[in-house]
Input
Amino acid sequence: MARLKLFIPFALFIIIGGFFYIMMDRINEGEYHPQALPSALVNKSFPAFKLPKLEQLEDTVTAADMLGDIALVNVWATWCPSCHEEHQYLNQLAQQGVRIFGINYKDDVFKAQGWLKQRGNPYLFNVVDKQGKLGLDMGVTGAPETYVIDHRGFVRLRFQGPLNERVWQDKFVPLLEQLRSEKQQEGTS
Amino acid sequence: MRALLFVLCWWLLPAHAVIETYQFADPSLRERYNQFVEELRCPKCQNQNLSGSNSEISADLRRELHRLLHEGKSDTEIVDYMVARYGEFVLYKPPLNKQTFLLWIAPGVLLIIGIAVVLVITVKQRQKKAELKQDNLSPEEQKALKQLLKESADD
Amino acid sequence: MIPELGHFSLILAFCLSIILAIVPMVGALRGNHDWMRLARSLAAGQFIFVLASFLLLAYSFLHDDFSVMVVANHSNSLLPDAYKFSAIWGGHEGSLLLWVLILAFWTVMVAVYSRELPLDMVAQVLSVMGMVSVGLLSFLLLTSSPFERILPFAPLEGADLNPLLQDPGMVIHPPMLYFGYVGFSVTFAFAIAALSSGRLDAAWARWSRPWANVAWVFLTLGIALGSWWAYYELGWGGWWFWDPVENASFMPWLAGTALIHSLAVTEKRGVFKSWTVLLAIFAFSLSLLGTFLVRSGVLTSVHSFAADPSRGLFILAFLVVVIGGSLLLYALRAPTVASKSSFTILSREMLLLINNVVLLVAMLTILFGTLFPLIMDGLELGKYSVGPPYFNAVFVPLMAILIVFMGVGPSTHWKQTRASYLRAQLLMAAVGSVIVGLVFPFVYGDGFSLPVALSVCFAAWLVFSCLANIREKTRNAKSLVAGLRRLNRSYYGMVVGHIGMALAVLGVCLTSQYSEEVDLRMAAGESTELAGYRYQFEGTRQVKGPNYNGTEGIIRVFQDDKQIAELLPQKRRYHAKRGQVMTEASIDASLWRDLYVAMGEELATDAWAIRIHYKPFVRWMWLGAIFMAIGGVLGALDKRYRVKQKASRSQVIEGAVS
Output
């Protein structure tokens, strides 16, 4: 019996080591990102706001204007290099019929408008969040970030980083399918 | 103006405190502010608190903190505000809930185990002493032993 | 050409380390003297080739060879030479080469300073160190070679060393730490050799002790340097953040402290052999664990090197072999037969046992707190952060417990002490500490403060109990001086070390309680007051450095209308590609307080955001660490490790205690 307690450090180490192995493996597979911060808003409604519309500054938009159907909410700005990268892909998605709203985050309004004119506007509309107040309420940590809201206006996913084909297929497509089937079920019940 | 507060966009920045000249209506607010900026984590950085981070998001959160304090919000309300937006991740002092329960009692549990180990060894030593008393040493050996013990006890 | 030579030299060192890992160990197990004797020359050879490799890499850095990837990533032609050299360990690959160099150095030191050890012991110890070398060198050569080249299109200029690292403190901090981490590989090797040969006795403890002490000294200084650097460089007046990487250095220190004390017991009394061996394994294992945490990318930290998943797995495999293997060996071979000697509750053995236990509890607490966020994330139970509020809350009470027993320990005798004796010795010290603790906050501060009173009381307890002990030991001498001269270095090591702890405790607590700070806007000509000092901002001027341009603020400090200091904080913009802007604080340091000034942004022409800190007793923290280091050195230099014991005496003693 006394001999067995000598194995305790070894056993503890094997547990810790095994745990590290599993985590390293997950990192390698891309399933786990130590730096990623899951959104605190998941399964909560999109925060309320009342801010100008980028495309038409005299108009204001609210959260209600975004509701009704499954959509992406993309946080972007002209000062963010990665946003340049993903913009092309967003245009593609918009052409495929994906509904995308934009939050122009802490940006120069005229630069942003010019940018969209130059590179195309995949967004149904853009919200001007000059102070970053909406971003704060959303828990935005930087740009670009993309949120998925379901048809009832609940946030279901937050992705930090630029969108591309791989990320879209891995993370977004399965979720969007699930959300569509949820919407259908609700529609029929 | 914003030149020195680098915008982040997925860069990693060195740790460098930001010096902001916030005015406080009274000293107790300043104290609470100082405590909060040390206990709240920058949501973006590589493990820095709001006090030590010069990222854009930290500056925004510090501004919010200042506003909330002056609106008369209590400590709990401020914590809830931050957690509602960024999750428990931003608290350097983990809240006490079902999941973190283990974390908070761990030191106590380990200490109790430690005390138990010491007690077990004490008991074993008492047993051993009883056994040793039965060892036979000649009077000369006993005297030599006493002498040696006395010398080594002084080291 | 040079980098290739460096690479080749490293490969040669690797070959030698393989032979070192196998041949002398087999020789020891089979009694083959020639094979065992090979160990020393192999150690020397390994060191020479690793050193050559390191120097060749240094050559590439100093000559701006940007075709070498690490030079391109971490250096720059405008960088001052000293920083070009220290840029070697500014990145993962180079720092690992430094690790290996230091390991080779310690190996050769063991080879040289082991004349009185039996040959088979030397052979086994060097072999085990060789095994560690094999692991690290293969890791270097296979996944992280510092000699990787960017050819054929070498960049014209390097990316520059992070300006935060362009600093003297940051230059010596890693090497110091590595000397400490790697130093514990020596005691680890001794432990493994003892377990595998079955020779676990007091003599083994005597051989290990100086090595443990020296390793511990380096680690203490390394940690103190890191803390001091963070304080003056990072600008928020903090000096410890319980960051995962900091914890990764602190845990081996705690285990190492337990180890040096446990070795004392094993050497003197032949007990605790099992504990001591286990602690020796723990200390080095925690060093390796630290290496894993910093380089694998599992934990988020400002200190981590750029993560690469394949590297992480390699280190993990290495860890499993070394730590898992050694703990398994321990479980199988640790003596299950208890020694015949016994001790009572009020004995030094018991006090040191309590010391071991408290230090281990502290170490495990920190380990759990550090890994908790990862565990929670892994089990998908949420994303949590565990930071200073938690660690301070749990660590301080444990230290308080430790200090209480630290005061009692030195006054106890081995085997047993009469309670009345202890009471006579320590009562005055205890009463004195309580009085000093209660009085201090009134005398120094504005009134009673429980944290201050407690910390002063505990620190005073350490000092007074030491003084009581010295008085007891010099009681019978002709004079105080004669009595003091009679005490050996090892004893002074203990005294100085424990006083160092008292100083550190005072520094930490008093600075936390009595610091003051203010952030404000100051225009040229304006002045402000903080903690009895008047700070007058005179404006700014432009300055030029070797690789940066800057703005320097001029702040005159007055006390009672007399100027006592001129502080020159700077904001520097570095030329190199990164173009980073750095804030350099200016500190007027003294033993009793630091006056600390840093500049923020320019808010309007000649009006700046200025931060002023008043930090009393902050230097005591690092002074305490220096004392602890001196204590460790004294302990290692004790004459008994240098002079061969007279055979008859040691035999009688060993016969009596075993």
